[in-house]
Structure formats: C-alpha cells, structure tokens
Amino acid sequence: xxxxxxxxxxxxxxxxxxxxxxxxxxxxxxxxxxxxxxxxxxxxxxxxxxxxxxxxxxxxxxxxxxxxxxxxxxxxxxxxxxxxxxxxxxxxxxxxxxxxxxxxxxxxxxxxxxxxxxxxxxxxxxxxxxxxxxxxxxxxxxxxxxxxxxxxxxxxxxxxxxxxxxxxxxxxxxxxxxxxxxxxxxxxxxxxxxxxxxxxxxxxxxxxxxxxxxxxxxxxxxxxxxxxxxxxxxxxxxxxxxxxxxxxxxxxxxxxxxxxxxxxxxxxxxxxxxxxxxxxxxxxxxxxxxxxxxxxxxxxxxxxxxxxxxxxxxxxxxxxxxxxxxxxxxxxxxxxxxxxxxxxxxxxxxxxxxxxxxxxxxxxxxxxxxxxxxxxxxxxxxxxxxxxxxxxxxxxxxxxxxxxxxxxxxxxxxxxxxxxxxxxxxxxxxxxxxxxxxxxxxxxxxxxxxxxxxxxxxxxxxxxxxxxxxxxxxxxxxxxxxxxxxxxxxxxxxxxxxxxxxxxxxxxxxxxxxxxxxxxxxxxxxxxxxxxxxxxxxxxxxxxxxxxxxxxxxxxxxxxxxxxxxxxxxxxxxxxxxxxxxxxxxxxxxxxxxxxxxxxxxxxxx
Length: 606
Description:
The chain is mostly beta strands. The chain contains one helix and 56 strands. The longest helix is centred in the N-terminal third of the chain and has 8 residues.
C-alpha cells in the first residue's frame, strides 16, 4: 500500500484543516446544511396495496372514511388502512365509469347511462336515466350534481330532479357548500358558481388558463382547477392564483389538502399547511395516470406491479416536499445552504444561472454561467460549481460574477472548507484559493479513486472531521478510506475487504463515516473501532449514498419503478422514501431530488 505525499507545505494544510471537527455531514457533491420549509417528521405509515385487480378500474373515489372502486365485477369499498376488510357493495354487468361518495351512500354512473344510489345493506336505488354521457359528477351532501351537455342536474334518492341551464357546454365540475362550480366553454371559457337552491349563476373568472381545464375540486373556501398550465386556485370573489405549475390531470381535494397526478405520473399532495409533497407508492409499483382519489390521510391511484394492476394506497404526506420551479426550468445541481438551496438552473430560454432558492423561488442570483453546473458546493456566502465544460468557477454573495478557478475532468468532486476549495479528480486531491486568483495545487496523490482509463476523471467525496480530511480510494489494489493528517501525510484509515467495486461516495453522520459498494453500506467509526455493515441488498444494486438529517439514505437501482431511496440504519428497518424515476440527488440536512419531468425539486427532510 502506497501513501502519497502532497506537494503543498504542511503549514498550509494545517491551517486549511484546523478547527473542522464540528461538521456532521459529508461535503463534496452534496454539501451540508438544511433546506427550507418544514420537513416530513415522525413515522410515516407504509403504503399498501388496497386490491389486486383482474382488469382495469372503471372508477375510483374516496371520502374521509372509505375508498370506493368499480371494476367489471361490481362495486367495492374498503375503510382506510391496511387491516380493513374489502366489502362488495354491488354486482353488476354494467361498466361503472363514475363514482361520487355521499355520506353513507355512493352514487354510481354506468355505461348504460343509469345513475344509482348505493347504500350498504340496501338494494341499489335508481336515481336517473340520463340521455347522454355526463362530463362531471360530484356530490353536495346527499345530493348528486351531474353535468350533462349544457346543463347541470341535481339528483337525490326519492326526490325530483332539478335542472339548471348553463350558457354553454361544461368542461369541469366541482360541488360543495350548496353550490356547484363549473368551467363553461362558450365564446371564451369562464368559471361560474351556481347556487343549487335558487339556480342562479354568477361568473367568477375568465382566466385564459380555463381553456385547458381538465378537472375541478372544492378546497375550503376556494375552487381549484387543474389545467395544462398548472393548478389555479380561485377564491369566492374570482381572484385567481397559481398554486402549482403541475397540472393537466385529475385533481381531488378535501379538508386535508388536494392531490393530483401530473403528466410525470408522480402523485403530489398539497397540504393545508401550504406544503406540496410528492407521494411514492413505495411498493415496487409504477403509478399510471388513470384513476385518482383521496380521503383522510390517504391517496389512491391505480398502478402497475410485477403481478399486474393494483390499487395502491399512499400516505398523503409520506413523500418529499416539492419545490416547484418556473415552467420549463430545470435544476442540474443543488447544495443546501442553511434554510435554502443553491442551485444551477437552466431556464426555458436556455440561460444558465447560479441562484439561491427558497421553496422554488429565486431569492438571490449569484451569476450567469456559460454552461450548467454538474456539482455545487456551498460554504457561507461562497459558492463553487463544476460546469459541464469542465471549469470550476466560484462566486460570492457580496461580489457576484463567476470567477474561473481551475479546469478539471468531468466527474470530479469538490468541497469548500475554511475558505479553501478542494478538488478530487482521478488519482489526486488538489487545493485552490479563490481569493488568490485560483489555480490548483496537488496536496495528495496516490491510491485515490478509480484509475481505469474509462474512469480517469472520477473523484471522491471529501469529508472533514477531527482536523483531518477523508476520501475514498476505489478501483485500485488498496481500496478503502484514506485520510490526510495535520502534517499533510496521506495514510490508510479503513481497508475494504469486499469483492465488489467500492464507490467513491463518502458520508459523515455523527461520529462515523459511511461508504458502500454495489451490495452493502458500511459504517466506519471515526475513533478507529470495528466497522459494521448497516444495509445490504441481495437483488438490486446500491448506486448512491446520501444524508437527510440524521438519516442515511441509500440510492437503489432496480424494480419496475426505476430507482428507490431507502432510509437505512441500525435502529430501524429500511424504509422506502421515494420509488420512481428521477434525475439524481444531493445530500445535506435534507435530501434533494431533481425531478425534471415535474419541473421541481423534491425535498425529503430529516
């Protein structure tokens, strides 16, 4: 085993590493520090399969007590929770296409244009025989509100129908509080509110987004409309406010918040606390944008699993918090900065920006770049990024502007510490001083990272603890964790004895370092005591390691849903945090997942 010696004077390295024992998470690609907003805290119920389906679902609905669904064999319901029994409410030869719960009953519309009221333990009651397919079905108390052609009809079991004419064909319908909210298509689209007692209609809005309305829902004192441009909230005075750039899908709402499945087919749930969180089935299923329902603490959607179609239940706030970006923008790299994020953003106009974000909103613009960043590191007001053309640039809040520091190979990793910039690429670690005009000087060389030609530029995470710097050597004959001590010497710290490829990810949590290969995650105490295996995969590959507060998160490849994030630790069984396609992640006090299709960042808190 050869320990390389850096070309930098020992005194400079001592100054750069002095006083760094207080850091508790890995630096490098992910940086350290928390992301803004309230994280998901406390135990989260496990998602579960409500029912395994023999065919497609015809309709799906839920209230605060039950989830209802219909397939080719009939109508079913189940109380919320994995231990509740499944009840069959109705056997029918007709295909039920719409459902709407109403107290102890549920209204069901079938392809024979019949509307029935179904109450458990009683015979189904015929409510109406319609003359055309409705474009909307909702309930207000015990009444069914049906949108048909250029009218709405109000039905109740045993009562006469009330018909209210509209001045155009309806497109979307919601009801609640004695009123119906209708998106009407005429000379120009408009949102109207109809008093169900008097039949009087009042126009609320002619917002241009209404021309692409897909669905509507009542949420508290607001009505939400899902459009191709996103979700728009209208108050009772007609004022409109965009609440999400995600839309073009069905939307459901109740007192707990609203849920929709945007085109990316990742359900998102917006809570009464104003936080939007992504939902993941977490049961090796891929959600399809066909059916959606929400009630109580659960959201429901149909999904594909290994053994066919299922109805999946997801905890309403069991995923990560979604930070929406402006339409068409994408984040290419991020690092936490206190309560916010510093990100490299590419706008819809292909402008590359290095910015600070607070819940998706740009609050500070550091600089404009020639190319997007592949990695970002933050320390205080200083920011460094590795651009896609292989240039490391730095910027400071008070000065602004991009200052080129060094050129490195793509795949290198970087960290800011005590005002110095550290770079890991190929088989060396370098240091640069942005305040002195940049340039890099090698401080460690030898058994560092992969040295195969195809991996020549790859770097390792650089972690600082106990006045020392730690890094991973992977792909050589002496794989393991190495450290640079106060005098500048590189010395072995932990030797890897496994048979797979060690990965250059390195995380510090508390008093231990964590590293992984393709099959296992290892805990290496900083005091030099024995290491231990804290997580293992037998069928899927571990491809990344991240920190989310006090949790260690392993990034797993495999399964029908793409990639999974599994929280690991000796004190608890692994928990799937996210199980869907995404574009990468960065660590820190919160885990940030860049989801390009959602035009958003997903934050998983501690």
